[in-house]
Amino acid sequence: MTFLTTSLIAGGLAAAVIPVVLHLVMQGRPKTYEFPALRFIRQRLAANQRRFRLKHLLLLALRVLLLVLLGVALARPTLRRLAAGSLGSQQSPVAAVIVMDTSPRMGYVAANKTRLEEAQEHALWLLEQFPKDSRVAVIGSQRVPASFQVDLLAARDRIERLSTAMTGRSLLESLVEGAKLLKQSELERREIYLITDMTEPDWPETILPSVRAALADVPDATLSLIDVGRDTVSDTALTRVSLSDEVLSAEMPLRIEVELTHIGGAESRTAELFVRNLGDSRLQVLDIGLQESVSIPSQNPEVRSLKPEVSPGDKRDSKTVEFPAGMSRRNVVFDLSVLQEGTNQGVIRLTSPDALAANDEIGFTIEVRTPSRVLIVAPANAQTLFLREALAPERLRLKGIVPYRIDTMSVDEFNEVPPNQLSGYRAVFLLDPPPLQPTGWKKLADHAATGNGVAVFLGRNATPISKFNEGPARELLGMTLRTQARASDGNLWLSAPGYENPVLRPFREMDTAKIPWYAVPVFRYWHVDDLVAGTDIVMQYSDGRPAMVSRPIGQGNVIVMTTPISGLPDENAWNLLPTSIEAPWLFVMLSDGVTQFLLGLGERNCNYLTGQLVTLRPEVTQWPASCIVKPPLGEGVRVPTDSLRQVITFSATEQPGNYAVSSGGTGGASQLQTGFSVNAPAQTWNLTRISPEQAKAMCGDRLHIISDRTMLESGMSQSRTGRDLFPLVMLLVLTVFAAEYFVSNRFYGVEK
Question: Which of 114, 177, 303, 323 could disulfide-link 298, Cβ–Cβ 3.0 to 4.6 Å?
């Protein structure tokens, strides 16, 4: 009963609870609804808060950056290329090379100051900018080894002593030497300074590979060029003098042609000609030369303008030349008909000096001698007329002009002539000879050995050839005759392997490639071989065989030509050399060259360029052991002579002008009285400037061309401590400040 009652109660309770639970479980949950206007306000507030936070951060960044940039500006930052050891303070020692242009063009005067003096002022200022303990080398144009000066005081002394030099290195050559020296320095900072007028002769393109290689070895070195030149210049230069002959007979006229080069405005210039004879007692003590020699500079313009009061000789002529504006060249010709025997020296001088006085004078030397005696020996069937007319034309003889005193003689007469009767002849020509007597060949060999000349022209009479290939004949000719070679079609002619031989000296001033040797065909010649040692081939045939040879015998010379110059232009002619209609002047010039060589005149030069070795062969009765060479400026120099070769050599030819050479004889008489002239090459006076672009193309982009000291000082500071960034930083400060002002006003304006 109890169990049943309990069950009923539990069942009733469960039945009562179930509806309640179901009601609680299944009843609906409340939904939240947001008012639309409030939802928009809330979303807008969140978006504005994010944007304001970004604006505030941007303004904060700009203001922080502004403060940072102000701090950086106060620190004066610099910027330079990073290289090993390249950073440091302004006072760190440097290794510097100052390359000074000391060419003659640096003597150009502007504002009462030469370009060299202006360059020296820049160099001395540079020394004051170098830190203590710096190593400095000063390199000029002189060919002396480059080295660092002991200290800055020694460098100053070196700069002050520099003077212009006629010979030496170009600016680029000095730059190469300076770069090589700088490479050896242990200092980390390296600087090169070029001080020049930027004229063309100092920038030869031939050494550009050496320049680039030398600069590549010092990649960390700065390269600065200080330009002391000017684009506008005015100068007239006597650049070149040409003489009709340097050694001539007393009756021969002299033609002097001088070249004048002008740059600048239109101008009229007058050139005067002065000539003196070194044997003239009135002028023995006078010095002739270019008195504006650059070897004695002066810092005082008044002192520099003074010239020694000397006379250059007798005034013989003057010519006036008109120059247009710009750059132009003119030639002036002077003709002299009467000259004293001996050594004559002349000066051509502009009457009014200009900005570059060193090129206002030019000198020359000539030897005037008694006409030399020449002997022509020929058989009856050989014509001597062609050679006689080539050496001493009748038209000149009728005017009393006798270049050579010519005698003719038959072969038979020559065989009978005693040897001592040949001593008066400086040259003997043997035209198409038959076999001579052995004594005749020996006479010719002995005559040449004593310092004279012998020329033999072989032709149809050289038979039998055995007579020419043995004994004294072979000793004189120095060759073996083989056979006669023929070229009847006219396709054979003379040619020159080169024109260095003194025999061909008359042709050197011509365009040798255009000499028409083909106009004088050769039809027959002797084929020779077995030339003795020491034989020079002067000319050859177009087939390559020897045509003319020369060799020394004792103190003289012998010339042998394997075709004659004495035949008529008929069917039996061996050549048309003396009878050519197309080019008759070829025979005249060749004959003159052969004669001068036999007389010993072909190698006698009286006029040289600066720096060349002078070789004199004066004719004196008693050869001196030494002589005195008196330069245009300064004291004379005693020079030993070569008595064996009978020559005088002199190498110190840096000064342009006229030099006198003399020696004392017995009783105070001078046994030797001669001289020579030295002039600068024409290119020396070229004042044309190269452009900055050309200079940078040669030296690279690291070359900085500077025209004033402000630029130079800035460049030096940048090269040592780097480029000053203060202006750039301050510009950034202003930019950031303006940006901050603009942004802040814009942002706060939106908020309002």
Answer: 303
Mapped onto helix, strand or coil, the DSSP state of residue 694 is helix
Under a CB-based contact definition with an 8 Å cutoff, are residues 221 and 187 in contact?
A: no
Written as one string, the DSSP assignment of 148-173 is --SSHHHHHHHHHH----SSS--HHH
270-291 burial: b if 16+ Cβ within 10 Å, else e = ebbbbbbbbeeeebeeebbbbb
Torsion, Cα 166 168 172 178, to 10 degrees, reads -130
Measured between alpha carbons, how far is 596 from 231 in angstroms, rounded to an integer? 48
- What single-letter amino acid sits at 569? P
- Are 227 and 706 in contact by the 8 Å Cβ rule? The answer is yes
pLDDT tens-digit readout, 274-311: 999 987 755 444 443 333 333 333 334 333 333 444 46
Radius of gyration over every alpha carbon of the chain, rounded to an integer in angstroms: 46
Residue 511 pLDDT > 90: no
Nearest CA to 456 among 473, 470, 471, 439? 473
User: What's the one-letter identity of residue 717?
Assistant: S
CA atoms within 13 A on the CB side of 275: 21
Taking only the tens place, the pLDDT of each residue in 642-673 is 888 788 999 999 999 999 999 865 444 457 88
Residue 708 DSSP one-character state: S
- pTM equals 0.74
Q: What's the Cα-to-Cα distance from 313 to each of 281, 286, 345, 661, 719, rounded to whole Å?
A: 12, 9, 9, 17, 58
Q: How far apart are CA 502 and CA 588, in angstroms?
A: 16
Instruction: For 491-546, give the DSSP string.
Output: --BEE-S-S-SGGGGGGTTS-GGG--GGGSBB-EEEEEE-PPTT-EEEEEETTS-E
- Other C-beta atoms closer than 10 Å to the C-beta of 385 total 11
